[in-house]
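We emphasize that the prediction below concerns an isolated chain of 420 residues; any contacts that depend on oligomerization or on bound cofactors are therefore not represented. The input was used exactly as deposited, without trimming of termini.
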Amino acid sequence: MTRKNAFYAQSGGVTAVINASAAGVIEAAREHSDKIGTVYAGRDGIVGALTEDLIDTSAESAGAIAALKHTPAGAFGSARYKLKGLEENRAQYERLIEVFKAHDIGYFFYNGGGDSADTCLKISQLSEKMGYPIQAIHVPKTMDNDLPHTDCSPGFGSVAKYTAVSIREAGFDLASMCKTSTKVFILEVMGRHAGWTAAAGGLASEAEGQDPHVLLFPEIAFDEEKFLAKVDDTVKRHGYCTIVASEGVRNADGEFLSDAGSTDAFGHKQLGGMAPTLAELIKNKLGYKYHYAIADYLMRAARHIASQTDVEQAYAVGRAAVEYAVAGKSGIMVSIVRESDEPYRWTIGEAPLDEVANVEKMMPREFISEDGFHITEAARRYLKPLIAGESYPPYADGLPQYARLKNVAVGKKLSEGFEV
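Result of the prediction step, given as a token string:
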């Protein structure tokens, strides 16, 4: 195989461990210097490829790359930018080929979720249709845990841990004050269509009456009457009620309760506050004092409380992407294969991108309690290993120390620019 350079990019919402995948890709590529030359990173994701705004990762020391394993967010910048079909916007693809040719790029590693899998699939198809060989490998990442054909998605385990820890701590707080103060606390978590993150909050409850008392999933149609009765009963029995609600909760007509009326760059509905919607409902119908929190970016950026399992898996899929590419594979996603629950054992596998792109893995009904407000033992067996272990970043002066890369720009070789 002719020695070629590689292109790596981060896509979509970043996570606490996506940089661990970046470290895996770059470190493995450096070990295959006979086949892979320089790893170029796209500044701000795939946008960097289109605008020829590349970063030379070879300018970073081994220590700096290793430090990515404990650094949150996207070290090279990410983007919500979805490529259209080849026939819809041929200019985009022609531009990618021009940039790849100009910089002798033969490997494409795209680190993201379902929409990124779709882009990676299109790049692999592009290789055949436009006569330019590219080994395109999708490196999985999504805190929503909704990628199919993989036991879990890197990024989810740490968000799950954050959710379970946060609702447990908030529950202790609420229990200590409920006699004379707040009766209801709502934690809103991410999850537009799949309720995995809300489900993770259920791990904090290990016995009857423990927090959280109520979980709300996108997979279960919201029933106002049943919900209010559950909250009211919980307050009367325990003195207070804690709730973990997915941002993507829908009513019986399939409409988001918190639809903000706009869409993002991927065409997804922008959701505008599940927690305050529920809080107002509880106040108006039950009269209970409430507090709520919208975890939002805090949960996906929380590297200080990352799951060790998640960090290890994120790094492993990055390394495996390179190993698969140099072995000649393309058009696949690296996957995580569960071998057993207790003890939790996993290995690396692969899945064809045409079975991954634009497919969402929802919570199975058997993971949700019969009344729709909590998780089952089957869900616990699945979720518990994913939040296991601590992987703390180094601290100095009381604060975590994260890597700040130089991100040295690569000189442009094309005379024409490209607008995105």
